[in-house]
């Protein structure tokens, strides 16, 4: 199958409401494909239920009726063999019908609101995100954009998926939530961002504090299962046009610890929500002003008897019939300022905007 035929087939699968995902692991050359051939996609409302499931997981930032955890059963694992379903009335997923972009002044006001609990000590960190929508070009191809992202972002996890419940999402993310097989597992703390990437990068106190908070959280969550990981970092890593601080945590999973329970304890990490976990989650839910849906959730193949690779859904795009919606966020601590955080989100938005 030629490249052009591949992305045309992906576009046809989307148009006919197929349940599928195509993804490329970091630094690999070829993508992997999974598709559910028939039946309703499995969905549930508790991450722990992932324990006994195998397939491509799509989990939201916040689980609710409209955004359950989804899992695509891998009936077909070769795009060449995928049969385009005959749908009479294909759905439109989560199409947005209006542009609700936040401007700089509104962002400044929202920043001040999110800074208040940092200033009074209620929160140690909170992530403020925003979306940016624009009209979809008539010639836009999700399939072609996937292959463009795969070529452009070789060090990231690149993905495209569609289901009738989630709609269509395309992204390139650098952040592992959990990967491994058997009893050998790996997670990372990824926080701190620089977009003026130089050959030699130095990190200020704000970014170092962000990284420390995320690493401490992960260590605390793992210790609740009596897990003592091997730690490597922090060190600088590059993703797209950005640089981040990263710490690797490798560990052995005790036999009495369920994978679903471990994933539930990790998500959402402070890299996408904040600290303390429940307070930050509640504050974002109350004041951020829009529904993140599957942005800052997690995605990827899960197979307890083989390889599991779950990634946080960052640097992503929600693809509707008439609109494309990009997402970006930044972590706020007491040393943050509105100007720098706005610039950071602008740079992050460019990751997906550049392949539209």
Task: Report a brief summary of the structure.
This protein is an alpha+beta fold and 356 residues long. The chain has 7 helices and 17 strands. The protein has one domain: 4-Layer Sandwich (Anthranilate synthase), CATH 3.60.120.
Break the fold down into its secondary structure elements and pairings.
Elements: H1 3-15, E1 19-24, E2 32-36, E3 42-44, E4 55-59, E5 69-72, H2 104-119, E6 125-135, H3 142-152, E7 157-163, E8 167-173, E9 176-181, E10 184-194, H4 205-223, E11 230-239, E12 242-252, H5 259-266, E13 274-275, H6 277-287, E14 298-302, E15 308-312, E16 316-319, E17 323-332, H7 338-353
Antiparallel strand pairs: 1-2, 1-7, 3-5, 4-5, 4-14, 6-13, 6-17, 7-8, 8-16, 9-10, 9-15, 10-12, 11-12, 14-15, 16-17
Protein name: isochorismate synthase
EC number: 5.4.4.2
Family: Belongs to the isochorismate synthase family.
Your description of this structure?
The protein is α+β, with helices and mostly antiparallel strands and 356 residues long. The protein has a single domain (3-353), classed as Anthranilate synthase (4-Layer Sandwich). The chain has 7 helices and 17 strands. The strands form 2 sheets. It has a 9-stranded antiparallel beta sheet. Strands 2-1-7-8-16-17-6-13 form an 8-stranded antiparallel beta sheet, sandwiched between helices. It is globular, with a radius of gyration of 19 Å. The two termini are 23 Å apart. It is an enzyme of class 5 (isomerase). It catalyses: chorismate = isochorismate.
Taking the sheet with the most strands, its summary is: 9 strands, antiparallel
Kindly report the average pLDDT value.
Answer: 91
* Order of helical and strand elements: HEEEEEHEHEEEEHEEHEHEEEEH
Helicity range? 25-40%
The top level CATH class name = Alpha Beta
**CATH fold title:** Anthranilate synthase
Q: So, CATH architecture?
A: 4-Layer Sandwich
What is the terminal-to-terminal distance?
A: 23 Å
